[in-house]
Amino acid sequence: MKKITLTTELINLASYSNTLNKAQSELLGLSFPLNDNWQESIMNKELSVGDTNLFIMLRGNLALKAQQQIKSNYKLLTTFHNPKVQKTEKIQKPQELSRVKSLEIYCDGGCQGNPGKSGSGLALYGADKTKPTLIYGAFEAMGTNNTAELNALHKALSIAKEYDRDANITILSDSKYSIDSITKWAYSWKKNNWKKKGGEIKNLEIIQQAHQLYEELKDTITIKHVKGHSGIEGNELADRMALLAITSQTQSYATHYYENIEEILL
């Protein structure tokens, strides 16, 4: 994947009044507000072409809502300019079940507005870590970011269940809420007849379904939290698939067929 090196010229081009906004800082992995030597800390850092474009587009003293909207619009734009053949056939797996020894499943959810149009995406990596299988779906006309994240994690667990129990399977999500809901909080909620102090349990149905799968698989899989939008390829691909589910309004999960992974990540 082509990389762009951050130079003084590029940093000056993207900064406004010698500073960056919160979205730009997050894109570069910087804490916000910025410290005094922020420019030195990112000098010669490498970004993808897509992240470089977004870095510049976010320039300005923008409200947080405007920053998030620009990020959302840019991802939609890249999806629009990357039309690949998409089919709704049976989801392909990285390798045949009998031969799988290792599998990583990245899952992510996205929402335009909260609530708003939502979708879920996944990226599956076999042992060789090449040519990941990309999956998208679970479109909801009026969903939330949390429901989309939960749907993605539920699908990841469903896929893991299909594989041999001797396989080394890791599920990776950038949603602490989703992970904690099914691996921690669900135990106390279930003990109290699926009730909690202070009100209703939101997204209860999907949490119950995902927790049941987790109970069946917890001794044979690993669930990890990863930082979102930090350049991790699997997480970025799952995010792009969630956006594809929204733009295509695909409800049933489908495989996204592609030729060049770099084009998806632009």
**CATH level 1 class label of the largest domain:** Alpha Beta
Q: How many strands, which pairing sense, and closed or not: the largest β-sheet?
A: 7 strands, mixed
Tally of extended strands?
Answer: 9
Low-confidence spans? 84-90
CATH topological fold name of the largest domain:
Nucleotidyltransferase, domain 5
- The CATH homologous superfamily of the largest domain corresponds to Ribonuclease H-like superfamily/Ribonuclease H
Q: What fraction, in percent, of the residue positions are helical?
A: 40-55%
Strand content: 15-25%
* CATH architectural designation of the largest domain: 2-Layer Sandwich
The helix/strand class is: alpha+beta
Count of distinct structural domains: 2
Structure report:
With 266 residues, this protein is of the alpha+beta class. It folds into 2 domains: 3-80, no CATH class; 86-265, Nucleotidyltransferase, domain 5, CATH 3.30.420.10. The chain contains 10 helices and 9 strands. The protein has helices at residues 8-14, 22-28, 38-42, 49-57, 64-80, 145-162, 176-191, 204-217, 233-248, 261-265, and strands at 3-5, 46-48, 86-87, 102-113, 116-125, 133-143, 168-173, 221-225, 254-256. Strands 3-9-6-5-4-7-8 form a 7-stranded mixed sheet. Strands 1-2 form a two-stranded antiparallel sheet. Strand 5 (116-125) and strand 6 form a beta hairpin. Helix 7 (176-191) crosses helix 8. The longest helix is centred in the middle third of the chain and has 18 residues, at 145-162. It is globular and about 55 Å long. Residues 84-90 have low confidence and may be disordered.
